[in-house]
Amino acid sequence: MFSGGIGSWAAAKRVAAEHGTDALTLLFTDTLIEDPDLYRFLEEAAANVGGQFVRIAEGRTPWQVYRDRRFLGNSRRDPCSAILKRQPADNWLRTNCRPAETTIYVGIDWTEEHRFTRLRDLRAKDGWTYEAPLCDPPYILKTDMMRELRHNGIYPPRLYSEGFSHNNCGGFCCKAGQGQFANLLRVNPTLYLQHEAEEESLRAYLGKNVSMMTDRTGDGKKKPLTMRTLRLRIEAGEQVDMFDIGGCGCFA
Fold this sequence. Notes:
Blueprint: H1 6-19, E1 25-29, H2 36-49, E2 52-56, H3 62-69, H4 79-96, E3 103-105, H5 113-124, E4 129-131, H6 142-151, H7 158-161, H8 178-187, H9 189-206, E5 213-215, E6 223-225, H10 227-235
Parallel strand pairs: 1-2, 3-4
Antiparallel strand pairs: 5-6
Helix pairs in contact: 3-4, 8-9, 8-10
């Protein structure tokens, strides 16, 4: 599962070193709202690892999925991940692979091993074998992966240098928190405004007071927090929770 993140490259390098690349497929599922630099990184990373690089895409963006499903993705439910990531990958696996002859590798590392355990146990029910090479020793951090990436002559994906913890969906995610969206507003206000407009358009289409983020200010009770409201608070100099990054994890 070649997501375009540093973890998937590092995991693929371990797989290639142990098993070779003759039967290795690097499978990328495209949401069509990725950062342009992701494609540069994928090309260089795939050439560095070896094996066969395969790109698949369902054909819609997350916002198109939300509108078609009449549901705005949020921190609890993310139809975009299921429809644009997991289902296309599952369809490709069923068409091209046999469970008994296939091992599926993911780039989750030892700091989030609970995500991998949940994924592995769930998919085992369907006969698939999942492994996470970065959950095994030697245990390394993302800083180590970045150093090794540069040692291999590849510049890291741009989003990492811009303060994002992942290289998915151009810095956007329906599971993102205030901190991640605030960072997106800081580094790419034009893109932020595009997503803000999409959220406002979908709210009007649904006729509901829904949002991706949750607000607990004031009485501490949960209430919708739109991208527009967050932006206006930031522009007014109000404090926002920069530690609320959210939980982007499309395959787990």
